[in-house]
Design brief:
This protein has helices spanning 24-29, 45-63, 70-81, 83-93, 102-110, 140-152, 171-183, 185-189, 200-208; strands spanning 11-12, 114-119, 133-137, 156-160, 163-167. It is α+β, with helices and mostly antiparallel strands and 210 residues long. Helix 2 packs across helix 3 (70-81) and helix 3 packs across helix 4 (83-93). The longest helix has 19 residues, at 45-63.
């Protein structure tokens, strides 16, 4: 089974007070208190699609599981059976984001929306968030597009200090939102590139060598 959480779905945001003017260094190093989150860089739409495909297969298996939290049960099973395979899956496919929110995080990054937090939540005490959540900062043009997709996929958004926290009742909803972002790739690509994308790849390469 895939757990569903009791949370009121709201869309509470103000485009006038969104964070603007992020630099490549701020996006790379992190611009919030969520210091453990690693910048996803500038992934391609193909990389986001690959992640979403793997995630869909994983969530289908989890949904068919008899375990109360099928996602965690499958991850524990994989870790115990093949710790190297588990590490490779998490590192190269999910980029160390939780299964269930990784696809959305990659899709948002491919849409050139800065991400800064992700957590799938769960039934145990391993997770920080009380329900599935991804933190993101869109520019105003992308915010309009993203807000429509959030509503169409029955997800919510809270704005805190100019940052958006996207959330859903289950990782299935978050995955569906990631699919919707991918499907809207042409609309996102038609928008001007945010200024923080300039030099981000170079900064991440230099920063990774420190």
């Amino acid at each position: 089974m895939i757990p569903e959480f009791h949370v009121d779905i709201r869309r509470d945001y103000d485009l006038k007070t969104l964070i603007t003017g992020l630099s490549a260094e701020e996006v790379a190093r992190g611009f919030t208190e969520h210091h453990e989150y690693e910048c996803l860089g500038l992934p391609s739409w193909e990389e986001a699609a690959e992640c979403l495909t793997e995630e869909a297969a994983f969530l289908e298996r989890a949904g068919n599981s008899d375990a109360p939290d099928g996602v965690e049960a499958l991850l524990d099973e994989l870790r115990d059976a093949d710790d190297i395979g588990y590490a490779e899956l998490m590192a190269y496919t999910f980029r160390w984001n939780d299964v269930g929110v990784a696809g959305l995080s990659l899709a948002l990054s491919a849409a050139r929306i800065a991400t800064f937090y992700s957590c799938s939540s769960g039934l145990d005490q391993r997770h920080h968030a009380e329900y599935p959540m991804v933190g993101a900062v869109p520019d105003r043009e992308r915010a309009d597009l993203l807000a429509r997709l959030i509503e169409e996929n029955r997800c919510g958004v809270d704005q805190v200090y100019g940052r958006w926290y996207l959330y859903g009742r289950s990782v299935k909803d978050m995955h569906a939102l990631g699919r919707a972002v991918l499907a809207a790739r042409d609309a996102f690509d038609a928008q001007p590139r945010p200024s923080w994308t300039e030099g981000l790849a170079e900064f991440l390469e230099e920063h990774g060598e420190e």
